[in-house]
UniProtKB/TrEMBL annotation:
GO terms for molecular function: glutamyl-tRNA reductase activity; NADP binding. Substrate binds at residues 49-52, 109, 114-116, 120. The lineage of its organism: Bacteria, Bacillati, Bacillota, Clostridia, Eubacteriales. Belongs to the glutamyl-tRNA reductase family. Residues 6-156 form the Glutamyl-tRNA reductase N-terminal domain. It comes from Desulforamulus aquiferis. During catalysis, the active site Cys acts as a nucleophile attacking the alpha-carbonyl group of tRNA-bound glutamate with the formation of a thioester intermediate between enzyme and glutamate, and the concomitant release of tRNA(Glu). The thioester intermediate is finally reduced by direct hydride transfer from NADPH, to form the product GSA. PROSITE patterns: GLUTR. This is Glutamyl-tRNA reductase.
Amino acid sequence: MLIAVIGVNHRTAPLEVREKLSFPEYNITQWLTKLQALPGIDGCAILSTCNRTEIYIAPVELDTGMSSVWGFLAEKSGLDISDIKNYTFSHTLYDAIRHLFRVVAGLDSMILGETQILGQVKRTYEMALEANTSNVVLNTLFQQAITTGKRVRTETGIDQNPVSIPYAAVELAKQSLESLIGCSVLVIGAGEMSELTVVNLVANGVSSVIVSNRSHDRAVQLAEKFNGRAVKFDMLFHYMTQADIVISSTAASHYVIKSPDMKRVMEQRGNRNILMVDIAVPRDIDPEVDKIEGVTLYDVDDLQNVVDANLAERRKAAVVADGIIEEELDAFMCWLSTRFVVPTITALKKRAEEIKQRELSRAFNRLGDLDDREKKIIGSLANSIVNQLLHSPVVKLKKYAVTPEGHLYTEILQNLFNLEVEGQRTQNNSQLEPIRKKMISGSNCTDWHHVHTAKAMESGSKE
Protein backbone atom coordinates (compact mmCIF):
# COMPACT_ATOMS: atom_id res chain seq x y z
CA MET A 1 0.00 0.00 0.00
CA LEU A 2 1.44 3.37 -1.05
CA ILE A 3 1.10 6.66 0.86
CA ALA A 4 0.77 10.13 -0.66
CA VAL A 5 0.03 13.68 0.43
CA ILE A 6 -1.13 16.73 -1.51
CA GLY A 7 -1.13 19.99 0.40
CA VAL A 8 -0.96 23.75 0.57
CA ASN A 9 0.64 25.86 3.28
CA HIS A 10 1.85 29.35 4.17
CA ARG A 11 4.90 28.94 1.95
CA THR A 12 3.14 27.72 -1.19
CA ALA A 13 0.02 29.89 -1.36
CA PRO A 14 -1.39 33.25 -0.21
CA LEU A 15 -4.18 33.44 2.35
CA GLU A 16 -6.95 33.91 -0.23
CA VAL A 17 -6.03 30.57 -1.83
CA ARG A 18 -5.57 28.74 1.49
CA GLU A 19 -9.03 29.92 2.55
CA LYS A 20 -10.64 28.30 -0.49
CA LEU A 21 -8.83 25.03 0.16
CA SER A 22 -9.59 24.84 3.90
CA PHE A 23 -12.03 22.38 5.46
CA PRO A 24 -14.07 23.49 8.51
CA GLU A 25 -14.15 20.79 11.18
CA TYR A 26 -17.95 20.84 11.47
CA ASN A 27 -18.42 19.22 8.03
CA ILE A 28 -15.09 17.50 7.47
CA THR A 29 -16.69 14.05 7.93
CA GLN A 30 -18.82 14.56 4.82
CA TRP A 31 -15.78 15.64 2.82
CA LEU A 32 -13.78 12.61 4.02
CA THR A 33 -16.56 10.23 3.02
CA LYS A 34 -16.80 11.86 -0.39
CA LEU A 35 -13.03 11.71 -0.87
CA GLN A 36 -12.76 8.02 0.04
CA ALA A 37 -15.45 7.13 -2.50
CA LEU A 38 -13.35 8.51 -5.37
CA PRO A 39 -11.41 6.17 -7.71
CA GLY A 40 -8.05 4.87 -6.53
CA ILE A 41 -8.41 5.79 -2.83
CA ASP A 42 -8.56 3.21 -0.06
CA GLY A 43 -7.95 5.43 2.98
CA CYS A 44 -7.76 9.18 3.56
CA ALA A 45 -7.33 11.89 6.21
CA ILE A 46 -7.53 15.70 5.99
CA LEU A 47 -5.34 18.02 8.05
CA SER A 48 -6.76 21.56 7.90
CA THR A 49 -5.45 24.47 9.99
CA CYS A 50 -5.21 28.23 9.53
CA ASN A 51 -1.87 27.85 7.75
CA ARG A 52 -2.19 24.54 5.91
CA THR A 53 -4.47 22.00 4.27
CA GLU A 54 -3.00 18.57 3.63
CA ILE A 55 -4.76 15.49 2.25
CA TYR A 56 -3.17 12.14 3.10
CA ILE A 57 -4.24 9.09 1.11
CA ALA A 58 -3.45 5.40 0.98
CA PRO A 59 -4.16 4.88 -2.73
CA VAL A 60 -5.05 1.59 -4.36
CA GLU A 61 -3.35 2.96 -7.46
CA LEU A 62 -1.13 6.00 -7.15
CA ASP A 63 -1.84 7.99 -10.32
CA THR A 64 -5.58 7.44 -10.09
CA GLY A 65 -5.64 8.37 -6.42
CA MET A 66 -3.62 11.54 -6.95
CA SER A 67 -5.86 12.60 -9.84
CA SER A 68 -8.89 12.05 -7.65
CA VAL A 69 -7.46 14.37 -5.00
CA TRP A 70 -6.74 17.12 -7.55
CA GLY A 71 -10.31 16.92 -8.80
CA PHE A 72 -11.62 16.83 -5.24
CA LEU A 73 -9.74 20.03 -4.35
CA ALA A 74 -10.95 21.72 -7.53
CA GLU A 75 -14.55 20.92 -6.67
CA LYS A 76 -14.11 22.13 -3.09
CA SER A 77 -12.39 25.40 -3.97
CA GLY A 78 -13.89 26.33 -7.31
CA LEU A 79 -10.36 26.73 -8.68
CA ASP A 80 -8.99 25.12 -11.83
CA ILE A 81 -6.83 22.04 -11.29
CA SER A 82 -3.93 23.79 -13.03
CA ASP A 83 -4.19 26.70 -10.57
CA ILE A 84 -4.35 24.34 -7.60
CA LYS A 85 -1.23 22.50 -8.77
CA ASN A 86 0.63 25.81 -8.93
CA TYR A 87 -0.10 26.46 -5.25
CA THR A 88 0.24 22.97 -3.81
CA PHE A 89 2.96 20.41 -3.15
CA SER A 90 2.77 16.63 -3.43
CA HIS A 91 4.86 13.84 -1.90
CA THR A 92 4.68 10.05 -2.13
CA LEU A 93 5.69 7.24 0.24
CA TYR A 94 9.04 8.07 1.88
CA ASP A 95 8.79 11.82 1.33
CA ALA A 96 5.12 11.89 2.36
CA ILE A 97 5.87 10.08 5.63
CA ARG A 98 8.86 12.28 6.41
CA HIS A 99 6.75 15.38 5.68
CA LEU A 100 4.06 14.35 8.19
CA PHE A 101 6.68 13.57 10.84
CA ARG A 102 8.25 17.03 10.33
CA VAL A 103 4.83 18.69 10.45
CA VAL A 104 3.84 17.04 13.73
CA ALA A 105 7.25 17.88 15.23
CA GLY A 106 6.69 21.57 14.47
CA LEU A 107 9.58 21.75 11.99
CA ASP A 108 7.33 22.82 9.10
CA SER A 109 5.40 25.53 11.00
CA MET A 110 5.59 29.32 10.68
CA ILE A 111 6.82 29.30 14.29
CA LEU A 112 9.52 26.65 14.56
CA GLY A 113 8.65 24.03 17.16
CA GLU A 114 5.13 25.28 17.92
CA THR A 115 3.04 22.84 19.93
CA GLN A 116 -0.49 23.41 18.60
CA ILE A 117 0.13 21.34 15.47
CA LEU A 118 0.57 18.16 17.55
CA GLY A 119 -3.01 18.39 18.78
CA GLN A 120 -4.24 19.29 15.30
CA VAL A 121 -2.64 16.18 13.76
CA LYS A 122 -4.11 14.06 16.55
CA ARG A 123 -7.55 15.53 15.83
CA THR A 124 -7.06 14.82 12.10
CA TYR A 125 -6.48 11.16 12.89
CA GLU A 126 -9.50 11.03 15.23
CA MET A 127 -11.79 12.53 12.57
CA ALA A 128 -10.60 9.99 9.97
CA LEU A 129 -11.41 7.21 12.45
CA GLU A 130 -14.82 8.73 13.19
CA ALA A 131 -15.57 8.98 9.46
CA ASN A 132 -14.29 5.41 8.94
CA THR A 133 -12.00 6.60 6.15
CA SER A 134 -8.69 5.53 7.65
CA ASN A 135 -7.11 2.10 7.14
CA VAL A 136 -4.39 0.06 8.80
CA VAL A 137 -1.57 1.87 6.99
CA LEU A 138 -2.85 5.37 7.79
CA ASN A 139 -3.68 4.30 11.35
CA THR A 140 -0.11 3.20 11.94
CA LEU A 141 1.28 6.24 10.11
CA PHE A 142 -0.62 8.76 12.23
CA GLN A 143 -0.03 6.86 15.46
CA GLN A 144 3.72 6.85 14.83
CA ALA A 145 3.65 10.49 13.71
CA ILE A 146 2.00 11.54 16.97
CA THR A 147 4.52 9.47 18.94
CA THR A 148 7.32 11.14 16.96
CA GLY A 149 5.97 14.61 17.72
CA LYS A 150 5.85 13.87 21.44
CA ARG A 151 9.32 12.33 21.39
CA VAL A 152 10.81 15.35 19.61
CA ARG A 153 9.41 17.73 22.20
CA THR A 154 10.43 15.55 25.13
CA GLU A 155 13.98 14.87 23.97
CA THR A 156 14.85 18.25 22.39
CA GLY A 157 12.78 20.80 24.34
CA ILE A 158 12.18 22.56 21.02
CA ASP A 159 8.97 24.16 22.32
CA GLN A 160 10.46 25.44 25.57
CA ASN A 161 11.89 28.74 24.31
CA PRO A 162 9.31 31.43 23.36
CA VAL A 163 9.74 32.82 19.84
CA SER A 164 6.95 35.40 19.61
CA ILE A 165 6.76 38.93 21.01
CA PRO A 166 3.84 38.17 23.39
CA TYR A 167 5.58 35.08 24.73
CA ALA A 168 8.86 36.98 25.11
CA ALA A 169 7.04 39.69 27.08
CA VAL A 170 5.82 37.06 29.52
CA GLU A 171 9.28 35.52 29.80
CA LEU A 172 10.84 38.87 30.67
CA ALA A 173 8.03 39.53 33.14
CA LYS A 174 8.73 36.23 34.90
CA GLN A 175 12.44 37.03 35.03
CA SER A 176 11.77 40.48 36.48
CA LEU A 177 9.06 39.54 39.00
CA GLU A 178 10.12 35.92 39.65
CA SER A 179 6.46 34.86 39.83
CA LEU A 180 3.34 36.22 38.11
CA ILE A 181 0.88 34.45 40.41
CA GLY A 182 -1.54 36.97 41.90
CA CYS A 183 -0.11 39.92 39.94
CA SER A 184 -2.27 42.58 38.28
CA VAL A 185 -1.76 43.92 34.75
CA LEU A 186 -2.85 47.18 33.16
CA VAL A 187 -3.19 46.90 29.39
CA ILE A 188 -3.00 50.08 27.34
CA GLY A 189 -4.43 49.47 23.88
CA ALA A 190 -6.82 46.71 22.89
CA GLY A 191 -5.27 45.32 19.72
CA GLU A 192 -4.18 41.81 18.83
CA MET A 193 -0.71 42.07 20.36
CA SER A 194 -2.14 43.30 23.65
CA GLU A 195 -4.65 40.46 23.72
CA LEU A 196 -2.07 37.78 22.95
CA THR A 197 0.22 39.11 25.66
CA VAL A 198 -2.57 39.12 28.24
CA VAL A 199 -3.57 35.59 27.26
CA ASN A 200 -0.10 34.39 28.12
CA LEU A 201 0.16 36.50 31.29
CA VAL A 202 -3.10 35.07 32.60
CA ALA A 203 -1.96 31.56 31.69
CA ASN A 204 1.10 32.17 33.86
CA GLY A 205 -0.78 33.32 36.94
CA VAL A 206 -1.81 36.97 36.51
CA SER A 207 -5.13 37.31 38.35
CA SER A 208 -6.32 40.86 37.66
CA VAL A 209 -6.67 42.52 34.23
CA ILE A 210 -7.45 46.21 33.66
CA VAL A 211 -7.84 47.48 30.09
CA SER A 212 -7.64 51.08 28.95
CA ASN A 213 -8.17 52.15 25.36
CA ARG A 214 -9.16 55.35 23.54
CA SER A 215 -12.17 53.44 22.23
CA HIS A 216 -13.81 52.45 25.49
CA ASP A 217 -16.13 49.92 23.79
CA ARG A 218 -13.12 48.02 22.49
CA ALA A 219 -11.59 48.08 25.96
CA VAL A 220 -14.80 46.61 27.38
CA GLN A 221 -14.76 43.79 24.80
CA LEU A 222 -11.18 42.83 25.63
CA ALA A 223 -11.65 43.09 29.39
CA GLU A 224 -14.67 40.78 29.28
CA LYS A 225 -12.55 38.01 27.77
CA PHE A 226 -10.45 37.89 30.94
CA ASN A 227 -13.13 38.74 33.51
CA GLY A 228 -11.35 42.06 33.90
CA ARG A 229 -12.55 45.63 33.85
CA ALA A 230 -12.28 48.47 31.35
CA VAL A 231 -11.36 52.00 32.46
CA LYS A 232 -11.54 55.34 30.70
CA PHE A 233 -8.37 56.42 28.97
CA ASP A 234 -8.17 59.64 30.99
CA MET A 235 -8.05 57.51 34.18
CA LEU A 236 -4.98 55.65 32.93
CA PHE A 237 -2.46 56.99 35.45
CA HIS A 238 -4.79 56.55 38.40
CA TYR A 239 -5.07 52.79 37.75
CA MET A 240 -1.37 52.55 36.98
CA THR A 241 -0.74 53.12 40.68
CA GLN A 242 -2.42 49.75 41.37
CA ALA A 243 -0.81 47.56 38.69
CA ASP A 244 2.25 45.32 38.98
CA ILE A 245 2.68 45.13 35.20
CA VAL A 246 1.89 47.62 32.42
CA ILE A 247 1.60 46.41 28.82
CA SER A 248 1.33 49.16 26.21
CA SER A 249 0.56 48.61 22.54
CA THR A 250 -1.32 51.51 20.94
CA ALA A 251 -1.21 53.03 17.47
CA ALA A 252 -0.25 56.46 18.82
CA SER A 253 2.40 58.44 16.95
CA HIS A 254 3.74 59.99 20.16
CA TYR A 255 4.60 58.93 23.71
CA VAL A 256 1.51 57.96 25.67
CA ILE A 257 3.49 57.74 28.92
CA LYS A 258 6.10 60.44 29.54
CA SER A 259 8.73 60.64 32.24
CA PRO A 260 7.06 63.41 34.37
CA ASP A 261 3.76 61.46 34.37
CA MET A 262 5.51 58.31 35.50
CA LYS A 263 7.37 60.13 38.28
CA ARG A 264 4.04 61.22 39.76
CA VAL A 265 2.71 57.65 39.49
CA MET A 266 5.74 56.29 41.33
CA GLU A 267 5.39 58.88 44.07
CA GLN A 268 1.80 57.75 44.62
CA ARG A 269 2.99 54.12 44.63
CA GLY A 270 5.61 54.88 47.25
CA ASN A 271 8.21 53.81 44.67
CA ARG A 272 6.88 50.26 44.78
CA ASN A 273 8.39 48.39 41.82
CA ILE A 274 6.52 48.25 38.51
CA LEU A 275 7.30 46.40 35.28
CA MET A 276 6.48 48.17 31.99
CA VAL A 277 6.53 46.44 28.60
CA ASP A 278 6.26 48.63 25.51
CA ILE A 279 5.28 46.53 22.48
CA ALA A 280 4.32 49.50 20.28
CA VAL A 281 6.19 50.75 17.21
CA PRO A 282 6.63 53.69 17.41
CA ARG A 283 7.10 53.48 21.15
CA ASP A 284 4.34 54.38 23.61
CA ILE A 285 6.62 54.90 26.61
CA ASP A 286 9.35 57.52 26.88
CA PRO A 287 12.65 55.60 27.31
CA GLU A 288 13.61 58.10 30.05
CA VAL A 289 11.02 56.33 32.21
CA ASP A 290 13.50 53.49 32.67
CA LYS A 291 15.72 55.82 34.72
CA ILE A 292 13.03 56.32 37.38
CA GLU A 293 13.63 54.41 40.60
CA GLY A 294 11.45 51.29 40.84
CA VAL A 295 10.62 51.18 37.12
CA THR A 296 11.79 48.37 34.83
CA LEU A 297 11.07 49.09 31.17
CA TYR A 298 11.37 46.74 28.23
CA ASP A 299 10.73 47.78 24.63
CA VAL A 300 10.23 45.79 21.43
CA ASP A 301 14.00 45.57 20.82
CA ASP A 302 14.48 43.88 24.19
CA LEU A 303 11.71 41.45 23.31
CA GLN A 304 13.18 40.78 19.88
CA ASN A 305 16.54 39.94 21.47
CA VAL A 306 14.79 37.29 23.54
CA VAL A 307 13.00 35.97 20.45
CA ASP A 308 16.26 35.80 18.46
CA ALA A 309 18.10 33.98 21.24
CA ASN A 310 15.27 31.52 21.71
CA LEU A 311 14.93 30.95 17.97
CA ALA A 312 18.62 30.08 17.84
CA GLU A 313 18.02 27.49 20.55
CA ARG A 314 15.07 26.07 18.64
CA ARG A 315 17.18 25.76 15.51
CA LYS A 316 19.74 23.75 17.45
CA ALA A 317 16.94 21.55 18.76
CA ALA A 318 15.60 21.15 15.20
CA VAL A 319 18.86 19.50 14.13
CA VAL A 320 18.42 16.90 16.88
CA ALA A 321 14.75 16.58 15.94
CA ASP A 322 15.67 15.71 12.35
CA GLY A 323 17.76 12.81 13.65
CA ILE A 324 14.83 11.53 15.70
CA ILE A 325 12.56 11.81 12.68
CA GLU A 326 14.95 9.73 10.57
CA GLU A 327 14.95 7.01 13.25
CA GLU A 328 11.16 6.95 13.41
CA LEU A 329 10.94 7.06 9.62
CA ASP A 330 13.17 4.01 9.22
CA ALA A 331 11.12 2.15 11.85
CA PHE A 332 7.89 2.90 9.99
CA MET A 333 9.37 1.96 6.62
CA CYS A 334 10.53 -1.37 8.04
CA TRP A 335 7.00 -2.01 9.31
CA LEU A 336 5.61 -1.10 5.90
CA SER A 337 8.11 -3.47 4.30
CA THR A 338 6.83 -6.44 6.26
CA ARG A 339 3.27 -5.65 5.16
CA PHE A 340 4.25 -6.32 1.56
CA VAL A 341 5.03 -9.98 2.27
CA VAL A 342 1.80 -10.65 4.20
CA PRO A 343 -0.35 -11.32 1.06
CA THR A 344 2.30 -13.78 -0.20
CA ILE A 345 2.38 -15.62 3.13
CA THR A 346 -1.42 -15.73 3.17
CA ALA A 347 -1.48 -17.10 -0.40
CA LEU A 348 1.17 -19.70 0.49
CA LYS A 349 -0.80 -20.94 3.51
CA LYS A 350 -3.98 -21.02 1.46
CA ARG A 351 -2.28 -23.10 -1.25
CA ALA A 352 -0.91 -25.50 1.39
CA GLU A 353 -4.35 -25.82 2.99
CA GLU A 354 -5.95 -26.60 -0.38
CA ILE A 355 -3.38 -29.32 -1.11
CA LYS A 356 -3.70 -30.77 2.39
CA GLN A 357 -7.50 -30.95 2.21
CA ARG A 358 -7.44 -32.48 -1.28
CA GLU A 359 -4.92 -35.15 -0.31
CA LEU A 360 -6.69 -35.94 2.96
CA SER A 361 -9.96 -36.40 1.10
CA ARG A 362 -8.23 -38.73 -1.39
CA ALA A 363 -6.56 -40.72 1.40
CA PHE A 364 -9.78 -41.12 3.37
CA ASN A 365 -11.55 -42.41 0.25
CA ARG A 366 -8.81 -45.02 -0.36
CA LEU A 367 -8.68 -46.16 3.27
CA GLY A 368 -12.39 -46.82 3.42
CA ASP A 369 -14.25 -46.75 6.72
CA LEU A 370 -12.30 -44.83 9.36
CA ASP A 371 -13.58 -43.82 12.74
CA ASP A 372 -13.29 -40.22 13.99
CA ARG A 373 -10.20 -40.97 16.07
CA GLU A 374 -8.32 -42.37 13.08
CA LYS A 375 -9.34 -39.43 10.88
CA LYS A 376 -8.20 -37.03 13.60
CA ILE A 377 -4.78 -38.71 13.86
CA ILE A 378 -4.25 -38.61 10.10
CA GLY A 379 -5.46 -34.99 9.95
CA SER A 380 -3.09 -34.01 12.78
CA LEU A 381 -0.22 -35.69 10.94
CA ALA A 382 -1.01 -33.73 7.77
CA ASN A 383 -1.28 -30.47 9.74
CA SER A 384 2.06 -31.10 11.43
CA ILE A 385 3.82 -31.83 8.14
CA VAL A 386 2.39 -28.70 6.46
CA ASN A 387 3.15 -26.42 9.42
CA GLN A 388 6.72 -27.65 9.74
CA LEU A 389 7.34 -27.26 6.03
CA LEU A 390 5.94 -23.71 6.00
CA HIS A 391 7.49 -22.52 9.23
CA SER A 392 10.98 -21.81 7.94
CA PRO A 393 9.95 -20.11 4.64
CA VAL A 394 7.46 -17.88 6.46
CA VAL A 395 9.92 -16.87 9.18
CA LYS A 396 12.69 -16.25 6.64
CA LEU A 397 10.42 -14.23 4.35
CA LYS A 398 9.41 -11.94 7.24
CA LYS A 399 13.07 -11.55 8.12
CA TYR A 400 14.09 -10.77 4.53
CA ALA A 401 11.17 -8.33 4.10
CA VAL A 402 13.19 -5.58 5.79
CA THR A 403 16.28 -6.14 3.63
CA PRO A 404 17.02 -4.73 0.17
CA GLU A 405 16.37 -8.21 -1.32
CA GLY A 406 12.93 -8.55 0.30
CA HIS A 407 10.95 -8.08 -2.88
CA LEU A 408 13.09 -10.62 -4.75
CA TYR A 409 12.47 -13.32 -2.12
CA THR A 410 8.74 -12.60 -2.27
CA GLU A 411 8.73 -12.83 -6.04
CA ILE A 412 10.75 -16.05 -6.05
CA LEU A 413 8.37 -17.66 -3.56
CA GLN A 414 5.38 -16.64 -5.67
CA ASN A 415 6.99 -18.20 -8.76
CA LEU A 416 8.12 -21.40 -6.99
CA PHE A 417 4.65 -22.15 -5.65
CA ASN A 418 2.74 -20.54 -8.55
CA LEU A 419 0.93 -18.24 -6.15
CA GLU A 420 -1.60 -15.66 -7.30
CA VAL A 421 -1.47 -12.67 -4.98
CA GLU A 422 -4.12 -10.00 -5.44
CA GLY A 423 -2.64 -6.68 -6.48
CA GLN A 424 0.79 -8.22 -7.19
CA ARG A 425 2.07 -9.94 -10.25
CA THR A 426 5.53 -11.21 -11.09
CA GLN A 427 7.12 -10.79 -14.45
CA ASN A 428 10.48 -10.96 -16.16
CA ASN A 429 11.21 -7.49 -17.41
CA SER A 430 14.65 -6.38 -18.54
CA GLN A 431 13.78 -2.82 -17.51
CA LEU A 432 13.66 -3.98 -13.90
CA GLU A 433 17.18 -5.42 -13.89
CA PRO A 434 18.90 -2.12 -12.90
CA ILE A 435 16.40 -1.83 -10.04
CA ARG A 436 17.06 -5.42 -8.96
CA LYS A 437 20.82 -4.77 -8.91
CA LYS A 438 20.26 -1.67 -6.83
CA MET A 439 18.11 -3.68 -4.43
CA ILE A 440 20.84 -6.26 -3.95
CA SER A 441 23.46 -3.57 -3.33
CA GLY A 442 21.22 -1.57 -0.94
CA SER A 443 21.81 -1.37 2.78
CA ASN A 444 18.68 -0.47 4.71
CA CYS A 445 14.89 -0.41 4.80
CA THR A 446 14.75 3.11 3.37
CA ASP A 447 16.79 2.14 0.29
CA TRP A 448 14.60 -0.90 -0.23
CA HIS A 449 11.46 1.16 -0.15
CA HIS A 450 12.62 3.59 -2.80
CA VAL A 451 13.28 0.58 -5.02
CA HIS A 452 10.11 -1.28 -4.09
CA THR A 453 8.03 1.81 -4.83
CA ALA A 454 9.57 2.09 -8.28
CA LYS A 455 8.80 -1.57 -9.01
CA ALA A 456 5.29 -1.41 -7.60
CA MET A 457 4.42 1.64 -9.66
CA GLU A 458 6.00 0.17 -12.82
CA SER A 459 4.12 -3.12 -12.53
CA GLY A 460 0.77 -1.57 -11.63
CA SER A 461 0.86 -3.17 -8.18
CA LYS A 462 -1.93 -2.33 -5.75
CA GLU A 463 0.26 -3.24 -2.79
